[in-house]
Amino acid sequence: MKYILFSLCLAQALLAPISGEDIPVMARGAIPFWIDRAGFDTPDSLNYGELYLQCPCQHLTFSELNDHQRAAYRVEATFFSKRDSMPFKWEKQIVTDAGTDLRDQMITEALSFRIAPGTYRVHIRLKDLQANAEGTCELAFTMPEFDNAAPTISDIQFAHRIDAANTQTTRNLVKNGFKIVPNARRSIATTLNIYFE
User: Among 133, 134, 59, which Cα is nearest to 102's?
Assistant: First the structure.
């Protein structure tokens, strides 16, 4: 599978250069994280988009409370178009069992938003609310203009895993009855999982 993917990437590079928009971005600053994105069609004028974030837990500050370790962080994304800017904010808290080894653990998030079709520059900031540390990055984002008159597909979302969703599944990782765990770094193992609509 890796050879097929490599061949497709090589063929694409020869036929047309890959834009920077097609590549995930790694943040700068005290908290390293990776960010990727995808856009999906909706029946109205604002399409549905997601930012996929992965951050190693070892770079966040955890404090122990009632046999659990807790960390809190905020993600801010500001979309800049030629005419204006649109801010979005998400605050999250991570709770793990006390004694959990955080060195190999990752935060994996799908952060959703609604935005009109167009080309944007997106500034993303991840802030640790306990340590006052942060990481930032910027990426180009094009929300496609989906043509309802013809069959089209959405952006392709890379995933670590795709499983049938159950009622206890985090809602922001679920699409059409499937739990889709994002692969913001687009690392490739023995299988390549993708989702599109």
Answer: 59
**pTM score, two decimals?**
0.74
Could you tell me if residue 121 is inside a domain?
yes
Q: Which two tokens stand for residue 96?
A: 């793990």
pLDDT computed for residue 14 by the predictor: 39
- CATH number of the domain where residue 133 is located: 2.60.40.1470
Q: How far apart are CA 24 and CA 185, in angstroms?
A: 6
- How far from chain centre, in Å, is Cα 130? 23
Least confident range from 65-69, 74-78, 108-112, 157-161: namely 157-161
Span between the terminal Cα atoms of the chain, in Å:
22
Per the listing, tokens 């692969």 go with 183
Q: Closest Cα partner for 35 from 197, 182, 189?
A: 182
State residue 126 phi and psi, 5-degree precision.
Answer: -110, 120
Q: Which residues of 135-161 are buried (b: 16+ CB within 10 A; e: fewer)?
A: bbbebebebbebeeeeeeebbebbbbe
